[in-house]
Every structure is written in structure tokens, then in C-alpha cells.
Amino acid sequence: MKIALIGAGGKMGVRLSKNLVGSRYDVAHVEVGEAGRQRLKAEVGVDCVALEDALDGAKAVILAVPDTAIRKVASGLIDKVAPGTILMALDAAAPFAGHFPERDDVTFFVTHPCHPPIFNDETDMAAKRDFFGGVAARQAIVSALMQGPEEHYAIGEDIAKTIFKPILRAHRVTVEQMALLEPGLSETVCATLLVVMKEAMDEVVRRGVDREAARDFLLGHLNILGAVTMGEVEGVFSDACNKAIANGKPRLMRDDWIGVFEPGEIAESIRRIT
């Protein structure tokens, strides 16, 4: 099965290209930037082809391009693909925002990596240091069939498992649910609170605590507190910790913070992203 990989020389494109080498897929790489072409040749050992040649006979087209470029890139190739082609995006933002062009006989498939989980059983050092995933550490993925026949879901998921391997689990969601996961859960909430934690660590350092001691203290507590909170281990917080949470949550969080998951707020967040 032939796949056209658009944006093959970019950061994500190179990651995907490395996992597609030696797979059962015949991959045609497309990259408009000279620096990207050279990077792909140096790191993966493959050459790029013209867009028309890549699309000729391709059963799937992967858009490894930034969210802000999806509309332009997809619109520029939609009339060049055959009926039944699977057009694949690697993030829900642009599809959710309506940036895919209209064409009823083309399948729209969206997939995204979950990244290797904090709690895992990896023992190999390369896997333990593979924080992004797609190299040595197993990760879960989420995928959505946005438009197209049901039988195309299995095809799209198999491609997703190949480009993001090694795989821990594969989950099926809708595009709307994927938007709740990102930017909602992973970026608006998780990334924001992690940045706040880093700022809090910097503040205790400013107040005299040794930086290494503060970092060890924070990361160690993230480990055990996270394990208890997520049910990774049996246990409960101490009375003192529960009292600190009761005092700290209203100090740190607005009463209506959960509203970040309302459809209008998710849509506005994605509008800004795209």
C-alpha cells in the first residue's frame, strides 16, 4: 500500500519517516524546503519526490505539517487524490476547526500520540529516556474516523500504529473527544498546571531553597502524589495533605475552571491554535 507523506522533512515528518522505513508500506516523501530535504536524506536516507508523483496511486496521505498549514496544504491536494483516499491529520485542531476541504468521496482520519506514560514498566535505558515516544518507549494512541467508510478505520489505525510505534494501546475516539483531550486536557489544564508548578519551584528557590533540593523534592512528590491520585498504588493522602489541598485549591483555581471544557471554550482555544 502506497502512502504519501507530506512534510516529510519536518520535525514530525522525520520521526514518522524513520518508523515507516522497513514497514509494509511504500512511502513517497514530499518536502518543499531544501533544509528539510537534506535533513531527511541525512537522518533517514530517503529522497523526496514531487507532490503529483507522491499522490499518484497513494491510498493514504499523511499531513505532517503544522496546524496553521493544514487548510492550505489540504486544499492544494484534495483535487489531486483518487476517490477512497485516506487523508490523515496528526492532530484534531485543524479538522475540528473545519480546515479540511469538502470532498465526500475522500476519507478523513485523525490520529495523535498519547506519549509514553509516567508510570510504566520500561527497563531499557533508551526507552526510559524516550519521553516523546515513537522511538523506544511504548505509547498509547488515539484515533478518529471523521469521515469515510467504517472499513477505513482499521487501515488508518494500522498506519497510526506504524508511525507511532512501539504501541502500548490504541483507543478509538471522535474528533470532538480528541479536541477535549488536546488542547483541553493535555495543554489547557495539564501543561498550564505544570508551568505553574515550575514557577512555584522557582519561587521557593528565590526564597532561599537550594535549586537541586527543590527540584528533587518536587519531582519526588509528583511521583508519589501522582501514583496515589491516579490509582497506580493503593494509598491515601495524609490528613495534612488533604487539608493543604482544601486550602490550596480555591487559592489556586477559579471556581469555574472546569468551564475550559465547554464546547465554546474548546472551539476558541482551537481557533487561536489554528
In short:
The protein is α/β, with parallel strands linked by helices and 274 residues long. Helix content is 47%, strand content 15%. The longest helix is centred in the C-terminal third of the chain and has 32 residues, at 175-206.
Properties at a glance:
2 domains; seven-stranded mixed beta sheet; alpha/beta; 274 residues; Rossmann fold; single chain; globular
How would you classify the helix and strand content by structural class? alpha/beta
Number of helices: 11
What's the mean pLDDT score?
A: 97
Q: What name does the CATH topology of the largest domain carry?
A: Rossmann fold
The CATH architecture of the largest domain:
3-Layer(aba) Sandwich
SSE order in H/E notation? Answer: EHEHHEHEHEHEHEHHHH
**Shape type:** globular
Please give the radius of gyration in angstroms.
21 Å
Number of strands: 7
What is the name of the CATH class of the largest domain? Alpha Beta
Main sheet: strands, sense, barrel = 7 strands, mixed
Structural features, described:
The chain has 274 residues and is an alpha/beta fold. The protein folds into 2 domains: 2-173, Rossmann fold, CATH 3.40.50.720; 180-273. Helix content is 47%, strand content 15%. The chain has 11 helices and 7 strands. The protein has helices at 11-20, 34-43, 51-55, 70-77, 93-96, 125-128, 151-163, 175-206, 211-229, 239-252, 263-273; strands at residues 2-6, 26-30, 60-63, 86-89, 107-113, 139-147, 167-172. The protein has a 7-stranded mixed beta sheet with strand order 2-1-3-4-5-6-7, with helices on both faces. Helix 8 packs antiparallel against helix 9 (211-229). The longest helix is centred in the last third of the chain and has 32 residues, at 175-206. It is globular and about 65 Å long. The two termini are 31 Å apart.
